[in-house]
Amino acid sequence: QVQLQESGPGLVKPSETLSLTCTVSGGSTDFFNWSWIRQPPGKGLEWIAYMFYSGTTNYNPSLRSRVTISLDTSRTQFSLRLTSVTAADTATYYCASLYAGNSFYFDSWGPGALVTVSS
Amino acid sequence: SYVLTQPPSVSVAPGKTARISCEGDSIGTKNVHWYQQKPGQAPLLVMYYDKDRPSGIPERLSGSNSGNTATLTISRVDAGDEADYYCQVSDTTTDHVVFGGGTTLTVL
User: Fold this and answer.
1) How far apart are CA B2 and CA B75, in angstroms?
2) Which residues of chain B does A107 touch, with a Cβ-Cβ cutoff of 8 Å?
């Protein structure tokens, strides 16, 4: 299994763009599928987006208009961009590897990165 | 969109069996996956494809899925099993991922 680590600013101002990077070790982004999931404080998990190694993406309909997931040309990182953030976007953001067979599940997770939206 | 419903909390005495349910319309026709999340930690996959355990997950954990209910069963519960548990499916029409609201397991 690969190891994952999220990184990025812990504080973002309202209306600005949240950007996070997930660094992958023990494997290349070429051969796995990748995803972002978030968890507001004290609440449950919410899937944000995923990308297959082929480049195909899929987004949570509730966030689709504001979210972009992308692979870095380094082949060891992938990223999340969430535009026009509000306080409701305050959450711990997890990157995860996605197993995509007949069904999809997340088999490795990063430790998470808390992002607070506040002025 | 597809909805998964879990009880907010389940309590069980040490040594007993805990059953955590996950309800959804015809969920028995889908593959259900389960995650365990302890305080301050990332979720951990503990069951996939209804009843398969990842390496390192004890046999005390088992899963089933039929009709409108999937169940994660934990036998011989101990304090180390206290955690939030989430079920998850992927919608076969849209390929969107859906999580249940989570269940907090308390060991009395």
Assistant:
1) 30
2) 45, 48, 54
* pLDDT, tens digit (0-9, with 9 covering 90-100), for A34-75: 999 999 999 999 999 999 988 899 999 999 999 999 988 878
The pLDDT assigned to A75 comes to 80
Residue of A35, A45, A106 lying closest to B45 (CB–CB): A106
Match 């060891």 to its residue by tokens: A76
Residue type, A26: G
Q: Which residues of B touch A112 (CB under 8 A)?
A: 42
pLDDT 10s digits, B1-55: 899 999 999 999 999 999 999 999 999 999 999 999 999 999 999 999 999 999 9
Question: Residue B90 in contact with residue B82, Cβ under 8 Å?
Answer: no
- Give A47's contacts in chain B (Cβ within 8 Å): 96-99
Dist. CA A106–CA A35, nearest whole Å: 8
**Residue A5: both structure tokens together:** 């680590």
Count Cβ atoms below 10 Å from residue A84 Cβ, excluding itself.
12
Question: Which residue type does B26 have?
Answer: S
In sequence order, the 6+-apart residues with CB closer than 8 A to the CB of A81 are A17, A18, A19, A67, A68, A69, A70
